[in-house]
User: Fold this.
Amino acid sequence: MPAVALPSGRLGVLLVALVAVSGCARLGLSRPDAPVRPLDGLLVRPDLQALVDAQVRRDGAALVAALTHADPHVRARAAFALGSVQDAAAVEPLLDALRDDAPAVRADAAFALGQTADSTRGVALLVALRTEATAAVQTELVDALGKTGGRADLRDLLGVALPAGLEPARARALSRMATRGVTGGAAWSAAHLLAPDAAVREAASFAFERAPVAAWRGHLPAVRAAFDALAPLDPARMHLARALGRAAEAQDVPRLAAALAATGSDWRTRVNVAGALGALRADAAARAA
Assistant:
């Protein structure tokens, strides 16, 4: 195969980085269910490389214009690029792209909308979610709601019927909302701390690590029960350990001390347990542990 000449300097580095992102799960709160973005020939297609140039220049207008291109690869790449440009003028065209014939375009448009921080478009995202049949697009729509949705969107997200495979995405979205101070999903998260799906458990537990304690203190019994019941290597326990430290109740010192002394547990859990005991350092047993 002939060698492909790459642009030198900043653009060359960015192209390589974008190819890596294209083939990998997007970063953020752990997403084992994240869809893999299809390869689109970026390194050998000048028209796609021109979109990367527009992305570097933060030229939202050029990228928006490409959303109506005849080639779905161009439309998808333009939508994906708008996720980093975060141009407010692109929100309406991206919403239109949620009705594109190509699932890849719809998925990238949903991803980009999640990066806009526009909290007024939750209804449109939910409407798209209710009519969308492609799992990869559904995942991105739910993720976008978690990044941008408000209290009304949270209530709707709790009530919408989702396929079982989308429950990790729902749990992750509720946790992201809680992190942003959009509370009201603690009961759902508490009820899923011992869910059979490990991805649901981890995402649900994350809400208690990050949300204001006042929003979930009433669910401390469920947090304690899950921390005690989960296997030592279950990643959900690391979030629950930090939650117990934030709650800072002396009755949790014995369980935290036992977890710190236990062998064979996840090192991340032990780190968070040590931090939780530090938050309770006024207690002599916590200091001893």
